[in-house]
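Entry:
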Amino acid sequence: MNNPPAAHRAVRNWTVLTDLILINLAFAFAYLVRYEFQWVLPATNIDPYGSYVGQQILLTLLLAVTFGQNGAWSRQRGEFWIDELSRVGYAVVIGIALMMAFTFLFRPLAFSRLLLVWALVFIILFVGLARWGRRLLLTTLYRQGIGVDRALVIGSGEVGRSVIRTLLARPDLGFQTIGYLDHADEENNVGLGRIPHLGSSDQLATILSQFPDLHTVFLALPGELHQQILEMVRLCRMRGVRARVVPDLFQLSLNRVEFGNMAGIPMLSVREVRISRMGQLLKRLLDLFILLLLAVPALLLSLIIAVAIKLDSAGPILFTQERVGRSGRRFQMIKFRSMVVDADDQKGELLAMNEATGPIFKIRNDPRLTRMGRLLRRFSMDELPQLLNVLRGEMSLVGPRPPLPDEVTNYQPWHHQRLEIKGGMTGLWQVSGRSDLTFDEQCLLDIYYIENWSLALDLRILLQTVPYTLFGRGAY
């Protein structure tokens, strides 16, 4: 999925900036109410505002995290203002609770729990009013055709007409409908008003090419056409267009379906196979933290392995190989050499011995392995230099295994979903059977990992990798 349009990013960035400013203004106003106006309870000791600056900064950082994690900076089309306010309120309550826990544990010289209660009230009030003003401004701009997303509706039956009527009646949703496509079994151009008829549903690929700035396709087709709908969803994903499905599409894997509504119309959308920006940042911080812990032991072990490789066979200690990373970007992956120097030249002669399915090449007892190489492969120690790839940001500790370029050329369309994030040194399929799994099973597990990513999942995989490495399960 392509990045959101510039208008969306601008709105989100502006929302983040104004929220952070309002959080600090609300804190300052809470100080005035507590110590200058002394509402509710009189203040026995009046601490200067400067003594609270540190707590104000910490609260701002805590709320930045809780707002991001609880979707307080995410716009959901068609939701009511009170729904958005409830997400903001929940994020503020969590942030204030964490701040109170901090003051309870560390007892700063100046602290007031009543001040934090007032801060909670005023942050929700200030941010809530700002969100209401943003809604009014965006609705005004949308009515003038500014910042809207171009949308296509597929389906001219009752469901399709309902979607189009809603889009026309609710300009605050921010869509501009370019037209609709009908299906062979549906009645054509009935009740669709000024929305142009652009052809039939089998012309979707042509329409996507003609309208490169198309943002959303609403699939409002009968449920029995599930195979055609799935193909349209796949086509939209390939072109970077968001596909929104109006029920029924229960044939999709349920963990990839997001349920919601748009102004009363139930919607199913296919969840993007990727990790959010906040998630990517947290994942990167986890990588760097673990790298810091592993730096010294990894360096000592690498020196021992390097000497052993040099004594065992002629050739370089390290082996670099071009791999495909996130979004198809290529990089040089580093490994300890575990094979003879001319291993690649011998690959063609060994193709008949390939024991793996799909586009990958694996032999359980590969004759090209050196004596030291067999030991390294057995315990996955040949992967150790990839910590440098992780340090450079080309890989992550956990993620799908980076493939070779010629493997990617033989991918089926759905296999490419595993390239939506950085490749990893270990991953879900490595702790679920490793080389004993088929290639399709590996891809399914990689995609499941991306769809269900969390820091807890990364930590669980890293912990499970330890016994798999020590006992060499499924490794060859």
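The longest strand covers residues 175-182.
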